[in-house]
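During the reporting period the student researcher (J.K.) took over the structure-prediction task from the postdoctoral fellow and processed the backlog of single-chain submissions. One of the processed entries is reproduced below for the supervisory committee.
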Amino acid sequence: MTDTTALTKIETLTFEQAMGELEALVRRLEEGRISLEDAISAFERGSELRIYCESKLQAAKMRVEKISFTSDGTAKTQPFDEEPNF
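J.K. obtained the following structure tokens:
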């Protein structure tokens, strides 16, 4: 693949950079004007980027807290995945 962004280690990219690169790869593949070898490389890189983006989203989800209120009206935070305790 001749695109210089493909040489960047995925782990060094921000979520936004990885998504931008993934979108660009998808556009190139959809256009269909690249060689078979470049298409295979783009598909492989895109698969790696998708996995990376999914892991970044999962990590962000785990960090999100939600606010809930106890029966006496006191606000508290709890991890995103926990069920509220009333």
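The committee noted the following: Residues 36-63 form the longest helix (28 residues).
J.K. will present the remaining backlog at the next meeting.
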